[in-house]
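Weekly structure sync, notes
Attendees: PL (lead), two postdocs, one rotation student
Agenda item 3: pending single-chain targets
PL asked that the sequence for the first pending target be pasted directly into the notes so everyone works from the same version. It is reproduced below exactly as submitted, 411 residues in total.
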Amino acid sequence: MAQTDRSGPLVGLKVVEITHIMAGPTCGLMLADMGADVIKVERLPRGDDTRRTIPPTIDGESAAFMMMNRNKRGVAINFRSQAGLAALRKLILSADVLVENFRVGAMEHYGLGYEVLRQEKPELIYCSLSGFGRTGPYAERGGFDLIAQGMSGLMSITGDMPTDDAQEPPPVKVGAPMTDITAGILAAMGILAAYVHRLKTGEGQMVDTSLFEAGITHTYWQSAICLATGVSPGPLGSAHPLMAPYQAFQTQDGWINIGAANQANWEKLITALGAQELGADPRFVDNAGRLTNLPLLVALLTPYFHHKTTAQWMATFDAIGLPAGPVLSIAEMHADPQTQARDMVVEVEHSRLGPVKTLGLPVKFSDTPGGVQHGAPIMGQHTREVLREIGYADGEIDAMAGSGDIQATAG
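Predicted structure, written out during the meeting:
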């Protein structure tokens, strides 16, 4: 998989990714989909834990691993081996960017910490992804998405609105691993900002972000409310803390989201529903009143939505320009014509399985289009190819493979 096989604005950028599970791999796939040569390094003997995050599999290959590691080259190295670590160091020093998501101190244990590597390569961009960041009282804690969602406040604002009974509902996490994915995107953004700085000055730097901070970034509205009032907002189901009505309503055959987020859209909504009397009700005359009386407003609006199917309401709302959309399952989303038109489900060639489907690149470029061009590597698939590129002869590679320093699955 040579650089000539790639396309996108980051062609020519070489990234070594020593990561596992999701946050780090998300960062790597973002960069790879935009054209960077991302070399995923897996530790022998087990490799990335996502290879064992099963079911499901496709003919024995982890679906989760293939989703997170498409478009990357794969190298397998024994970190406990002196020869393996020497090869890893040489590989890192040949790159523009290093991405790692080990616990704080682990890379230093291997002699691969930022302060050591920057002495040998000052232009290296070193990105560290962790549960809580490299500073602060929790820096040495391990972190998972669930933990970060709870500590960042996300789980306190997710779930159904409390009812009148005294029983407090249990905390609910966001269905997707929100902090993992967001941390990976923040890391990619930070790397690109550091790369711009390096293009201007020639200097590399440390980029440090975390799952905890990724979760906090999703509380902008709720934090604005709390910082202004001193009161922590709670869960509202699908509703919005600052706008109403802005939530899901049940139709004859499903659910539909309504974005009547300003006065003009509110008036469009009640006209389309045939509920103009609500517009004259002093309790709903403006957004502040609608928020104050939200449970009553929802109770009064809901019966109107039962009169038509989701598709019928969508036709009505599209005709008047009211923002709305059906609540789709994952399979329905995959089949949606907008998903297809935006190339967000694509087919890619896997070296063992042949064509497999994956998600596409969510950023489009007019002049330097990126995309998903290669399937995820099998364990050690590109070890020989990558080691050749940094100066190892085939005989040396064979000897290292025989000693267990590396795994070189393919030639």
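Discussion points:
- The CA atoms of residues 151 and 212 lie 7 Å apart.
- The chain has two domains: 3-218+336-407, 246-250+255-326.
Action: rotation student to compare against the earlier draft before next sync.
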